[in-house]
Amino acid sequence: MKVLKKIGLGLSVFSLLAVTACGSAGTSGGGSSQGGSTASEILIGVQSPTTGSEAKMGQDINNAIQLAADEINDKGGINGKKIKLVFADDACDPQTATAAANKLVSQGVVAVVGGYCSGATLPASGVYHNAGIPMVVTAANSAKIPAQGYKEIFLVNGTTVHQGEVAADHMVAKLGGKRIAIVHDNSAFAKDLAEITKKAVEKKGGQVVAFEAVNPEEKDFTSLLTKLKNAKPDATYWTAYYAAGGLLIKQFKQLGVPGVIGVGDGANDKTLIDIAGKQAAEGTFVTTSPTPEFLPEAKSFNESYTKKFSQAPGPYSALSYDGMRLLADAISRAGSTDKAAIVKALKETKAFKTFGGNVSFKEDGTLEKSNFIVIQVKDGKFSK
Amino acid sequence: MDIFIQQLTNALVVGSFYSLIALGYSMVYGIIKLLNFAHGDLYMIGAFAGFSALSLLSGDAGVLGIAMAFLAAMIVAGLFGIGIERVAYRPLLNSSRLTILITAVGVSLVLENGVMLTYGPSFKVFPSQLPITGFQIAGATVTYSQIGLILLSVLLMVALQWFVHRTLYGKAMRSIAIDQTATSLMGIPVHRIIGITFFIGSALAAAAGMMAGLYYGQINFMMGFIVGLKAFTAAVIGGIGSIPGAMLGGLVLGLLETFGTIYIGGEWKDVFAFAILILILTLKPTGLLGEKVTERM
């Protein structure tokens, strides 16, 4: 019993110490406008999922941001200071994301770049907003993120509103589909895109014959697809991620559901084709942000990325690379590491040249001009 | 009619996966009264062992290659099962049931994260996948692979039933389930029989994992978690500790989930499974085929 008490006492003293230590780090980080950055370094946080189902995407994003930061540092850094990246894993999960965001804030980062899953980026953006830290969102694109009205959050990726319109346009106007089926996985991004696409399809005169949700970890879509088969859709649109999307496409073809199938940008990854199988994936359309392989300007980026990490860049690598460069540009224009000044500089971004076109922001922090394109699977590869 | 036949096939495939895993749950519970919460992860281990075996074979594996990989997956997971029992459960067999339940959860975490560290966190695409050719019955598409999977599961279950009821080892297992101390007094190597039970249960789960890999074509280190919970539910529905109960429970769960998806919606799939679990536990705690047992703890 005595021993237990001693251990208990020790633990409580230890945790008290830990709490005070954290607290002081937090105040020093949040209190001074220079953040945790020193005279020669600028601390920049990177939030992305490096564990969990979307771990691969997180790695792609981290690599691209690292590449951009290294290039900037090699050229002398920003205003003579080197960029130091601090990585935080959000596991594509709201709870982990909030913890990750708090960690970055307490470490004193002056800005954050990244954000893949909208479900994780939404709560994290609130944390950054409260700390006044600017965030450049490079991949998450739920319309709910700008709708929060946080002036610190900027999206270099088009939102679901843009994407839903592009998808509806492709299915109804271009393919001449009348009966459209939409399937999502109840995650913030997928549900949002599905609802927006539904509205856009109806506006264009199409009819949504099925609007279904599945569990995010679903592996067996056969019962859902049997239901779809009965609804006889001309086109089916999957708005969630690639792991389940590949299975959906495979089982879609297996069951012989009529019509074409397409996926949103969360499912834009080569693995989608591997999981579905070349044969089943053939003809699948993908609505996506401009990915590096379709951009002539990104050739040198592709080469240096492949050389550095011995793998091809992922679908969000180019956007993340651009996001980091855009942020660095804003910090150098702000002329200091003061958070408010960086926010102001980001807002004033005028026609910053990125792979997907020139970036300027609207009042709500989203792109002035959307950059979504539709690509297709041909011979087991994505092509334009 | 077509939609009914289609869903029935779907349900049978899912149900046979659940049944195979539920068998391991039931056997281990039947023999040492342990809810082996690491069991779902042996399904995952099986899938990854099969993945590695198939990756070693270059090019198209063919039927023989797949059969070899199957065998490899079952043996690897079976050995894992024995190892887990030896390291994590045997030293605690005489302590309280709660302690051993906690170790089971710990083992599950170790397996999941171990595989994540070895194979990486992203989804793996199975090297060989089943062909998607099939035939039509009254408008429903049934693939040969689906029939093959159902038949193979039935075959494994029949083999298990035969083993438990017709062999000396099976007799020893049933005897331990009734009274472990008395059995050991008869000179039966109790620990070895428990080891064999773990081997068989794990190998069956691995077979299901391998089948899921071939059927769905995609595996991931977390795949065992929810399936493990579902199989546990299946075992409880059928009556935990009963082998025919586990088979029945798996099929019932597969049918419920599949037809529930049609009439209510896909996002409710997991809700069905766990609502049924609660219902069974309240109304008939012994499960559909469970017998009344006198409390021994």
TrEMBL record, chain A:
Source taxon at top rank: Bacteria
GO terms, biological process: amino acid transport
InterPro entries on file: Leu-bd, Leu_Ile_Val-bd, Peripla_BP_I
Residue span(s) of domain Leucine-binding protein: 42-380
Keywords noted in UniProt: Amino-acid transport, Signal, Transport
Pfam families: Peripla_BP_6
Endpoints of the signal sequence: 1-21
Gene3D superfamilies assigned to the protein according to its UniProt record, in alphabetical order: 3.40.50.2300
Recorded family membership: Belongs to the leucine-binding protein family.
Protein name: Branched chain amino acid ABC transporter substrate-binding protein
TrEMBL record, chain B:
Membrane topology according to the record: Multi-pass membrane protein
Molecular function terms from GO: L-isoleucine transmembrane transporter activity; L-leucine transmembrane transporter activity; L-phenylalanine transmembrane transporter activity; L-valine transmembrane transporter activity
Membrane-spanning residues: 12-35, 64-84, 96-117, 137-164, 193-215, 221-240, 247-265, 271-290
Keyword Membrane: yes
Alphabetical UniProt keywords: Amino-acid transport, Cell inner membrane, Cell membrane, Membrane, Transmembrane, Transmembrane helix, Transport
Entry's Gene Ontology BP terms: D-alanine transmembrane transport; L-alanine transport; L-isoleucine import across plasma membrane
Cellular component aspect of the GO annotation: plasma membrane
Intracellular or extracellular location(s): Cell membrane
Keyword ATP-binding: no
PANTHER family named in the record: BRANCHED-CHAIN AMINO ACID TRANSPORT SYSTEM PERMEASE PROTEIN LIVH, HIGH-AFFINITY BRANCHED-CHAIN AMINO ACID TRANSPORT SYSTEM PERMEASE PROTEIN LIVH
Family according to the record: Belongs to the binding-protein-dependent transport system permease family. LivHM subfamily.
Protein name: Branched-chain amino acid ABC transporter permease
